[in-house]
Design a protein that fits this description.
Number of helices: 12
Radius of gyration: 21 Å
Structural class: alpha/beta
CATH class of the largest domain: Alpha Beta
CATH superfamily of the largest domain: Type I PLP-dependent aspartate aminotransferase-like (Major domain)
Number of domains: 2
Helix content: 40-55%
Bound molecules: pyridoxal-5'-phosphate
CATH architecture of the largest domain: 3-Layer(aba) Sandwich
Oligomer: single chain
Distance between the termini: 22 Å
Order of helices and strands: EHHEHEHEHEHEHEEHEEHEEEEHHEH
Number of strands: 15
Strand content: 5-15%
CATH topology of the largest domain: Aspartate Aminotransferase, domain 2
Strand order of the largest sheet: 2-8-7-6-5-3-4
Amino acid sequence: MRTPSQPIYLDHNATTPPLPEVIRAVSEALCVAYGNPSSGHRQGEPARRLLLDAREALQRCLDAPEEHFIFTGSGTEANNLAMRSLARHAKSIITSKVEHSSILSCADQLQTEGRSVECIRVNPNGVVDMRAMRHQLATHPEAAVSIQWINNETGVFQPIDEIIALARKHGSLVHVDAAQAVGKTKVSLKALNPDFLTLTAHKFNGPAGVGVLYARRPDFIEPICVGGGQQGGRHAGTENIAGIAGLKRALELRDDSLTEVIEHMRMLRDTFEKIVLKECPWVRVNGYHDERVCNTTNLLFEGIDGQALVGRLDSKGIYCSQSSACTAGRPEPSHVLRAMGLSEAQAYASARFSFGITNTLHETELAARSVVEEAEHLKRIFA
Ligand SMILES: Cc1ncc(COP(=O)(O)O)c(C=O)c1O
């Protein structure tokens, strides 16, 4: 198999390339809206206008009841802001074992500060154990819930409507980490009705470094950043106007084409999976097959080293990732896959492929054939 002439990027759950229209919106804002939105003079006006327009776009595209959006420096920051706000209003926090590290690390911090946090198990498909959720809510009267909508490693959906309905029944606040959902599934904040919801622009072809926290009740925000009193004192710091302009453009573009985008990404993911699973019947999909987001497949290449596979693909210009966070260069087995019951060896033998709108069918087929070739090669070596 020849090395593809162009790199093939299959790591869109990590980040996505900003679209040309987004790059234009960012550079235009840097040129015309460089003023400080908090300045009293007229040079602050374009920036102020841009902030208003971005909030309007968020409300329209996410079908939100109000324009209650706090701009942050990342999805991580939005998640921290949400967790601290939940902690201020609840006696304990219920979350899951498969959350993003921005939730789990914050949960650890809260615990060291004496807060009660319960991380609920998931079943082998990666879905939150609803019996455990019901039990926790029933036995912790003033608990709050923080739960992800779509898992970043497996793409598995959590039963978000059911979780929110249950939390409401118990009078609990709910935060939804929708970092992997916005841009890949229809989001209606009116229908979902969470108290807080996180999104981040770089997961849907916007710029990195721009997150948003939706807050149904902004007065419930517990600031983690104090200073100049921007955003009503709820998240101080001069706003990243250019980044927010990029977020707005990316969100509008995605909203205009959501149905086609979902179909395109699903077609690529399914084609890829079909080729790999047909040629390597020993490979297995990690996570609930039918309840996965359109663009993600997490594959278990039993018996081989996933890191070696990712490395060999990298040398061919095919970029995917192992379902693990790298700490100081040392890959840890994925906490998500381990929570789903995979052994350490199986977690190390897994790799994630996540597709995006800029991928083509041709490159997807090329990538799938390279994966087959490399996996079979490694299997012979490791056998
Ligand atoms: C589910 C989830 N939550 C939060 C984040 C954090 O977003 P950011 O990279 O903007 O900090 C990510 C990013 O990978 C994610 O996948």
